[in-house]
Automatic annotation (TrEMBL):
<dbReference type="Pfam" id="PF02604">
    <property type="entry name" value="PhdYeFM_antitox"/>
</dbReference>
<dbReference type="InterPro" id="IPR051416">
    <property type="entry name" value="phD-YefM_TA_antitoxins"/>
</dbReference>
<comment type="similarity">
    <text>Belongs to the phD/YefM antitoxin family.</text>
</comment>
<comment type="function">
    <text>Antitoxin component of a type II toxin-antitoxin (TA) system.</text>
</comment>
<dbReference type="InterPro" id="IPR006442">
    <property type="entry name" value="Antitoxin_Phd/YefM"/>
</dbReference>
<protein>
    <recommendedName>
        <fullName>Antitoxin</fullName>
    </recommendedName>
</protein>
<dbReference type="InterPro" id="IPR036165">
    <property type="entry name" value="YefM-like_sf"/>
</dbReference>
Length: 76
């Protein structure tokens, strides 16, 4: 993992980001002490309906009232 000081990071941010995009991890340091890490962003795409058919529930009992839960919330 490469370590760069803050001045170098400010001066060469675009180049450092290119290296990070290529998969490298870079630590930014102040006076030799690590302050922050530049790491590649890992995007997770959300797929709507991805669990369709894999989850079920009993519609007849879905809205049942639980007296214990109501008691915890001060509902009677």
């Amino acid at each position: 993992m490469a370590v760069v000081n803050i001045h170098e990071a400010k001066t060469h941010l675009s180049r450092l980001l290119e290296r990070v995009e290529a998969g490298e991890e870079i630590t930014i340091a102040r006076a030799g002490k690590p302050v922050a890490d530049l790491v590649p962003h890992s995007r997770v795409d959300v797929i709507f309906g991805g669990l369709r058919g894999r989850l079920t529930y009993d519609a007849d009992h879905f809205d049942d009232v639980d007296p214990e839960v109501n008691e915890l919330f001060g509902l009677r």
